[in-house]
Amino acid sequence: MARSRTVLAGAGLTAAALLLAACGAGGDAGSDAAGGAVRLTYVSYGGSGQDAQIKAFQEPYAAAHPDVTFVNSSPADIAQVKAQVTSGVVQWDVVSVAPAAATQHCGTLFEKLSFPDLKADDFVAKAIGECYVGNFGNASPFAYNADKYPDPAKAPQTIEDFFDTAKFPGKRGVITNLQNGILEYPLLADGVAPDKLYPLDVDRALKKWDTVRKDTIFAPNVGALQQAASSGQVDMFLLSDSRLIALLNEKKNIKIVWDTTVVSVNALAVPLGTKNKETAQDFLQSLVQPEPVAKITEMLGTVPVNLKAKPNLTDNGKLVEAYGPVNTGETVVQDVDWYAQNWDAVTTKLTNWLVG
Amino acid sequence: MSSNKIKWSSWPLLVPALALLAGILLVPLADTFIRSVSAPGTYTNLLTDGVTMTVLWRTVVTAATVTVAALLIGYPYAYLMTRVSPRARGILLVIVLIPFWTSVMARNFAWIIILQDGGPVQSLFAFFGAEDVVLYGSTAGVTIAMTQVMLPFMVLPLFSTLGGIDRRLLLAARGLGSSPTAAFWKVFWPLSRGGVMAGVILVFTLSLGFYVTPALLGSPQESLVAQLLAQRTTLLLDFAAAGALGMVVLVVTLVLVAWANRMGGTVSAIGVVAASPPKDR
């Protein structure tokens, strides 16, 4: 009896020790401070978007720097970054994040970066920040199902038409995150000039949504809205270019309306306290050069952040090219600084409006 | 179930489980609690922001609806399982367990296809003249899918309890002049209450914290409490407020479990293996 008790207690202790050891081991992946091999942990949203980033960003960099390897993980989650930074065990080196969030938590959750070689004139507005670089932009022009509105003369022409259910009956679709213009488009439709959008009048925007609320599907994420558009559940929708091109490639009969278009920048940032900051920063600088930017644009149908990039687009790629000849309207780039300062208040206001 | 006094020498058997529980549950829970009270106003905000209470109430109503629906479907099913041949019982058991073994994601995506606009359910309603029945993105759709997902948690404890009831008691009731209906309600039903409470508690508490189904099948406008929690953690990074909300859900759950224990649902009935009949009262 006594012996079996000892064995059991020993087993328990061993299990606990193993657990602790497993928790502790993750932190010491290769670090650039020590010289030699560096392993960068790259965290994005998975799927084809991350595959494209591996091909366009990571593979060329790893080829040029044989001592650097990449580990990919998903999904990127800023709450995880906070947990890692707070606990002092930072395991992620490069993380996909909204530029507003990177700015809001600049120096507290994310490393301040410096890119002396990058010239602001070469980039889309707000593409390079104090704590992030933009890896690509997303335009979310409004598009409609051409089966529902077949006659181009009678089809929606402006963003006002999106909010006019009397003139254009049909279901609307919008994504509830802040990056696809849920607050900008209603204000534009309400008559706010594109260059006078910021600071956003959130109450006015939500009031405008109230007028079409019962005809609108508020999708929790971009995939859900793409699915709804693909299956004909929504007739007009505010969907990002990379998803519009997917619908076009599926031969869905959709038409894009180039009135004023909202563009948001997607960003990569470096969690505070990573051992690989120098390498991560060098890598970020490499991926905003014209070549990788052109490549990611070709693969995803997104907005190139580097204005010198010369992507070789497909026919469908040209149809969603916000900075190309197809866009006959104006373009508004989301104001990262305004969002960074008002993120919590706006998020809360939008959520309360949605669930209320 | 033996009522022998537990020997103290067997306590070390619990050491690994307790160590694990302390490491992965108690310490983080205490941490969450401390964080939730260290920031000012987290609990009062829950009451006054006008949204948390709406969502919490909607969650409780949804969980209660799911529980009642699962009971209404699960009880006759579990009853049938006790009345058929062992072979048929095996088949019925497998039918319950297949969804149990299937990934939750696969089941939820299947429900998206079934419930979406133009999907089979809508076509069925349209066939009977009810056009424009939209279940995808609504609380009704979430309730239906959650009932299916939760059904095994109702059927299994019910089956273990109902199977342990001595059917000669029913014969005795009939022999003493009772009608079959009266025999069921006066003899069988009270004896099955332990299993009912166990199933109800399992389904209700799991439904309260359910995230995947409402996130995929519901809409942001019909958020349940887990979605609100996710929003507070991942968008606002407000771990204190999220912790406070989690604590409220935990307390609601514990109160219910305590209530159920008093109402006669024994904790042991939650274990499917505990097939012993509840004591006559």
Short description:
The complex is a heterodimer of chains A (356) and B (281). Chain A has 356 residues and is an alpha/beta fold.
What does this protein look like?
The complex is a heterodimer of chains A (356) and B (281). By secondary structure, chain A is of the alpha/beta class. Chain A folds into 2 domains: 36-137 and 266-316, D-Maltodextrin-Binding Protein, domain 2 (3-Layer(aba) Sandwich); 139-263 and 322-355, D-Maltodextrin-Binding Protein, domain 2, CATH 3.40.190. Helix content of chain A is 40%, strand content 15%. Chain A has helices at 2-25, 47-64, 78-87, 99-104, 159-162, 184-189, 202-210, 222-230, 241-249, 277-287, 290-300, 315-319, 336-355, and strands at residues 38-43, 68-73, 94-97, 132-139, 142-145, 172-175, 216-219, 236-238, 254-257, 261-269, 331-333. In chain A, strands 1, 2, 3, 4, 10 and 11 form a 6-stranded mixed sheet that branches. In chain A, helix 2 links the parallel strand 1 (38-43) and strand 2. In chain A, helix 2 (47-64) runs antiparallel to helix 11 (290-300). The model of chain A is unreliable at 1-30 (pLDDT under 50). Chain B has 281 residues and is mainly α. Chain B is built from 12 helices and no strands. In chain B, helix 2 (42-48) crosses helix 12 (239-262) and helix 8 (168-175) packs antiparallel against helix 9 (180-208). The two termini of chain B are 17 Å apart. The chains are: A alpha/beta (356), B mainly alpha (281). At the A-B interface, helix 1, helix 3, strand 7 and helix 13 of A face helix 1 and helix 11 of B.
Largest sheet of chain A: 6 strands, mixed
- Here the CATH topology of the largest domain in chain A equals D-Maltodextrin-Binding Protein, domain 2
Instruction: Classify the secondary structure makeup of chain B into a structural class.
Output: mainly alpha
Low-confidence stretches of chain B: 268-281
pLDDT averaged over residues of chain A: 88
CATH topology of chain B: MetI-like fold
Count of individual helical segments of chain A: 13
The CATH H-level homologous superfamily of the largest domain in chain A: Periplasmic binding protein-like II
Order of helices and strands of chain B: HHHHHHHHHHHH
